[in-house]
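Narrative progress, year one. The postdoctoral researcher (J.K.) led the effort to move from monomer predictions toward full complexes, under supervision of the PI. The following entry was the first complex the group processed end to end, covering 729 residues in total.
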Amino acid sequence: MALPTYASPLERLWHYAYLVICTLIFIFLIAPILVIMPLSFNAEPYFTFTEAMLRLAPEGFSLRWYEALLTTGMMNPEAVAGWWSDVWANAAWVKAAKNSFIIGFWATVLATTLGTLAALGLSRPDMPYRRAIMAILISPMIVPIIIIAAGTFFFYSAPCGVIGVDCGRLTSTYSGVILAHTTLGIPFVIITVTATLSGFDQSLVRAAASLGANPRATFFRVILPLILPGVISGALFAFVTSFDEVVAVLFIAGPEQQTIPRQMWNGIREQISPAILSVATILVVISIALLATVELLRRRSDRLRGVTGR
Amino acid sequence: MTPAAPITPAMLTTADGRPLKAALAAAQARSKRRALFLVLPLLLFVVISFVIPIGQMLQRSFYHDGFSKSAPALQAWFAENPLGTEPDEAAYAALVADLALMQETRAAGDAGTRINYTLPGARSLYTSAARGAKKLEPPFKEALLAEDAKWADPRLWVAMRSAASPWTADFYMIAADLQLAADGGVERAPETQRVYVALYIKTIFLAALITGICLLLAFPIAHLLATLPMAKANLLLILVLLPFWTSLLVRTTSWIVLLQDQGVINSFLVYLGAIGDDGRLRMIYNQTGTIIVMVHILLPFMVLPLYSVMRVIPPSYARAARSLGATSWTTFRRIYLPQTLPGIGAGALLVFILAVGYYITPALVGGADGMLYSNMISFHMNKANWSMAAALATLLLLGVLVLYWLYDRLVGIDNLKLG
């Protein structure tokens, strides 16, 4: 934004002050995320920059906290033979990461499949009760997570209790956590896919039909390729939601279903060690990758739909 | 379709001879069914995994059978004698019979807990009395009172009358900082026990404060993003979106690292000599910490709707105002600001809704005075006070649903955007 030539000195001053304010706000947004990265290489168990780090002396830095991620919980960290298999089987953070990916994957698959189907229905012009249904489907995003977690906990303690049958419990099971995370991820899929479909040219469907394609062929060969970027960003949103979720895990999961956020929660509550910062750094790198993917997908989607600019 | 056409033409029909009107209606119904059919699997899923659990929780906030399930004799006595009847020997006999039953079914703890909600400190009465209930001899009134004079407390009998039915509004009464009075009515709880209403108000106040700060911070940068050329704006937008995509726990951890006593900011200030080593600022594990971290976490939710509204505001309006003699402040106040109102409304409502129900951040960095309503729900969940937690959750849910309805009316959920 250029300053107009007729601006008075006061306006000029304000303009530069404004730019400074904006810079400060951007620093407020981004600095906390960046500051943990160098600190995760701290050689000392402190949460602040040591003198050696500020001098950029190599002895101030180490990978010990990354190593700690692998060795915590190992049966025998000193052994040479079978070190990696020990890490894979026993290290607490590795277990948590495996759980996070398993739960995230299935929750994403379920949320994306069901959500995309529903978004297709919701985008049809003659969808009845559209507003009400949409409000229900989006509500898991709006209702406070503690309420969802508490309600789900009661429900999962006796899932068939509503119809008066006893069929075991869903608490402390993978299925329970996956189902809860699916519910939480659905609004994101619905929002992104309906947004993509709003720019979708419905005449393409009629064109496909007039050329003899049955509904299934139309979906897989015409609709899906065009809305795929939106579906993938919805899926990524659902995955991140599950990957970052801790409250439902706190209430529903048992000791076998500890995820990365749950492990971090323990770490922050009990003994906060720089090992948390190394996990945090890895997670930031993952989120940068996800953000880049979503941005690229959005641009591709805009291009496919012929929307120029943003 | 004009019914009063002067010359009635032959009825329009489809190729196979059906009336066109009926055929069209059938086709429309079919396509409606198809659309509904696509949504149905998800709707069913959400109803089962979300609506039913919340409905169940609602029911639980009105239902607690801890006392009623093991007090059949008292139930009968309460049914026969209206409120205000002085408990007679028959009442005490019923009480002793129920205490004996509680001992047999090991339910004295449950029953005592239920009474304890409405009359704090009553639990131990039941657990200790149940133990010796079998050996008590009539007259029961004297026997029980000899054991503990509190059995004659009229408020205890009011509490038992209320707990004798599993369906109760007692938990909402507690959540409103009220208690049962000796005459069966309600009165305000003693001052030391009034926590819930104050917390509700504090939560709303803090959420409003956080929303206000977010708006103050988001407005300038959204404006900057909207006026910069597209390529630069997209680059800066990444600075907003990256926090949005970064794990909540990561961001909370970062702030702990930055703000704690031995953290980066305090160390830097000590190094600069701005504060002494013993004068380190308390910026986390209190209300300040909750506010700072929540503003950081919720800021993108404010920036994005503002930005999407601001970038379509034509700059020519402001230029026209200036050319007609308006000062830059007048131009901003009368021309620009009104056009950004939809964005402000959408962002502020969304941030407020999310802030009111926030749990994780206050739990991790809130300390004692930075707690919000959600944390109280979690506290009761951890203490296994299910019904109490459910009642508080229902009250919070009601607040959020009102805001959600407002959001839908003012903004429309269709306009909810993510990045």
